[in-house]
Design goal:
Strand content: 15-25%
Shape: elongated
CATH topology of the largest domain: Rossmann fold
Order of helices and strands: HEHEHEHEHEEHEHHEHEHEHEHEEHH
CATH class of the largest domain: Alpha Beta
Number of helices: 14
Number of domains: 2
CATH superfamily of the largest domain: Response regulator
Radius of gyration: 22 Å
Number of strands: 13
């Protein structure tokens, strides 16, 4: 048991440093203080119009490059750019709003035709948008909205609903009745919109158990801190020894892995079922635990399909560059990944 806890935690918390090759379409962006690798004179020359270029140039600034989902987003952008025959300039915002502004300046100086921005600091969004609008560059904002930009990302309410539906299905199969409670393990720092991913699990659960009361919901808010999560969930389990049917929804993979560790340490596997928002922690769990156990706790991960972000955004920004209309909000599809369908959706990742 201890071996499984350690392996699961290591898989979820280890930073993925995988790099990818762009096959000729990928360029690493020059540092913000350097105009461009090809020389300042060329970089400072007036940018060509899209019609004058052999290829359209699209900039993509990733939120960070620290965990698997972020690597998957970047790789999907590279793949989509190659398929569309456009040049892609990559950058890493590193969870830093000030750096995101510097990168935006650099992207403009390099003459991009369209910009895909994935930045955690919504406060600098207006500054970035002002720069892009002044240069006539259309923008898609990924996951974090920017006024004036097309939004692409999660439909948080839908993601919460499908996660709750999965909890309801498993509760009915395993226990034959409604859970004693619904425990939501959240991170309030993510903001109200993102919290819908857990809060809406209640509505999804009620589709199976319409009489499930809001009074049966418990919430803990450890932020995305693994040690704090494990401690808080352990405290909850200790405080409720008579609960033997506990449905748990977690905001992300880090929280889910730490929650699982708390449950296993307490020996409460038979009492708990859990669904996480985000899929890669769950996929890593499946790779580490290929054999089904009778009291399996982690029963699903809601897919955000980070590996397909490029499929949605690159064609959309090309349309915007060409003056075509696109929807103001473009949402990714969501479904819950389980042992039964994981191979269908993530064959390559499970095999890696």
């Amino acid at each position: 048991m201890k071996k499984r806890i350690a392996l699961t935690l290591a898989l979820a918390l280890t930073l993925s440093l995988t790099a990818c090759s762009g096959g000729g379409t990928q360029n690493e962006q020059a540092p913000a203080e350097t105009p461009a690798e090809s020389g300042s004179e060329e970089a400072e020359a007036p940018a060509e119009t899209p019609a004058e270029k052999e290829k359209l140039v699209i900039g993509f600034a990733n939120i960070a490059e620290e965990v698997e989902l972020q690597i998957q987003v970047r790789e999907s952008m590279v793949k989509a750019a190659e398929e569309a025959g456009v040049e892609l300039i990559l950058a890493n915002n590193e969870y830093d709003g000030a750096k995101a502004v510097e990168i935006a300046d650099n992207m403009v100086s390099q003459g991009i035709d369209g910009f895909i921005e994935f930045n955690i600091d919504e406060s600098v969004g207006p500054v970035i948008m002002e720069k892009m609008e002044a240069a006539g560059i259309p923008v898609i904002a990924v996951d974090i909205p920017i006024e004036g930009a097309v939004f692409f990302g999660a439909n948080n309410e839908t993601a919460g609903m499908v996660g709750g539906q999965r909890l309801g299905e498993v509760a009915k199969e395993r226990w034959g009745e409604a859970p004693d409670c619904l425990l939501l393990v959240e991170d309030s720092t993510s903001g109200e919109a993102v919290l819908a991913r857990t809060e809406k699990m209640y509505d999804g659960l009620k589709e199976t158990f319409p009489d499930f009361s809001e009074d049966q919901i418990f919430r803990v808010d450890p932020t995305t801190d693994a040690a704090k999560t494990q401690s808080m969930v352990s405290d909850f389990l200790s405080a409720h020894p008579d609960y033997h049917k506990i449905a748990i929804g977690t905001l992300n993979d880090v929280i889910a892995t730490a929650t699982l560790a708390a449950i296993e340490t307490a020996g409460r596997e038979a009492d708990c079922i859990m669904v996480a928002e985000n899929e890669y922690g769950y996929l890593d769990y499946l790779k580490a635990n290929p054999d089904v156990t009778g009291d399996e706790v982690w029963v699903g991960g809601v897919a955000f399909f980070f590996n397909r972000y490029g499929e949605y955004t690159v064609p959309a920004v090309i349309k915007m560059i060409n003056g075509e209309e696109v929807d103001e909000k473009i949402y990714v599809d969501h479904l819950t990944i389980t042992r039964d369908n994981a191979e269908e959706w993530f064959t390559d990742y499970l095999a890696s």
